[in-house]
Amino acid sequence: MTKQRTVVLTPPSVSPDHILEKLVCIRAHRERIFQVSTVMHDRKLICHNYGHGGAGWTFLFGCVNASLRLYNQHCTRLPSLAKEPIAVIGAGCHGLLTALILARQGKQVRIIAQDNTTMIPSYKAAGFFFPRPRKSSTEQERTIFEQFGMESYTLYRQIALGCHPFITRGAQLLPAYYGSDIDPGFDPYIQHGLMEKPETVIIDFGNSKRYQAQAYTAIFIDAVIIMQELHTELAKLSVPIITDTINNFCQISESVIFNCAGKSAGLLAGDTRIVPVQGHLITLQQQPDMSKLNYMINVKVTMRSPQGHLRDELIYYAPKGSGILGITFIRGQDSLTANQHEFDRLLQRSMDFFGTPGIN
Fold first, then answer.
1. Is the pTM of this model over 0.90?
2. In whole angstroms, what is the distance from residue 213 CA to residue 210 CA?
3. Which of 86, 92, 123, 200 could serve as 256's disulfide partner, Cβ 3.0–4.6 Å?
């Protein structure tokens, strides 16, 4: 039997005193698969790109590029459409990237957003590239997950290696440790030579906490930095961002509209497959040297629910800022104030896993 390699890691300091901020965000999750499609509506071309449900950053480039390819197909069939000004609804990562690529192609484009602050979900993401298809997806949909995911991963690698044409920072290749009972969806990436096969290792936090894990080298996405990069490039190209609430596509004068509105996108499209999903994250402070915390953790642990039932819950750690912990995925919950007890549960399971500072 081959002896498993031990990887010694510095654990993040996890306790109530190390909490910087508690974050709640509501993601628009579309059953089975996100929506990337086009439709003519009242003589307007609507290009839909929504419903990623917490995987918006993972599938960012694949979904945006697919949406633009569909738009270009319409322009080929109807050349006059290519000269029309364009409105992009939504100032999250999908809306910003869509508008930026269009502007770089010389299109007249503006962004319309209900919220253009750092409180939108695109800023709050933990940063994991996690391309696993949804359990209910069809085989055709699983193929789309693979294709769009690998397209995104290829472009994130360009950012990490310093060769992306307009995003210079915000993605890194880092060690990523997954529990043996978690499938991150990386098999196609390994088959296509985009990633190396994982190694089974023992991670040792030096405080009696030791675990078996699958060690990958994977992409970490720093959402805040990439959002800053996108805003900087949009400003250079003088793309305006207008604050407004859009309840109907008829409110928009442009005849080409990209619907990247996040939570509102499904309402605009009349899509009944959208389910709100509540997520909880904790950002950390007063950490050890962050150069020693430059890795990712994604594991499943068993906890007792408030109703007394045993259930599997997740622990994410990523080196965003001074570290970030997550995550929950509470379906059907669209409140930013409900389920505050989930922060206590997240903190407790993280303390149990990493070890309370100062206690062996």
1. yes
2. 10
3. 86
Q: How far apart are CA 103 and CA 122, in angstroms?
A: 21
Amino acid at 107: K
What separation in angstroms does the CA of 345 have from each of 12, 128, 330, 348, 350?
17, 21, 14, 5, 8
> Which residues, including other chains, have CB under 8 Å from residue 29's CB and lie 6 or more apart?
51, 52, 53, 54, 274, 275, 276, 277, 331
User: How many whole angstroms separate alpha carbon 150 and alpha carbon 58?
Assistant: 10
Note the pLDDT tens digit of each residue in 115-159: 999 889 999 999 999 999 999 999 999 999 999 999 999 999 999
Q: What does the alpha-carbon distance between residue 322 and residue 292 come to, in Å, rounded to a whole number?
A: 11
> What's the token pair of residue 343?
């922060």
User: CA 191, CA 212: separation in Å to the nearest integer?
Assistant: 24
What are the E-state strand segments in the chain? 5-8, 19-30, 35-41, 44-50, 86-89, 109-113, 171-178, 199-204, 210-221, 241-243, 256-259, 274-284, 296-304, 310-318, 324-326, 330-331
Reduced to 3 states, what is the DSSP secondary structure of residue 338? Answer: coil
- Round to whole Å and give the CA distance between 189 and 191: 5
Residue with tokens 């149990």: 352
Copy the structure tokens of residue 81: 């459409």
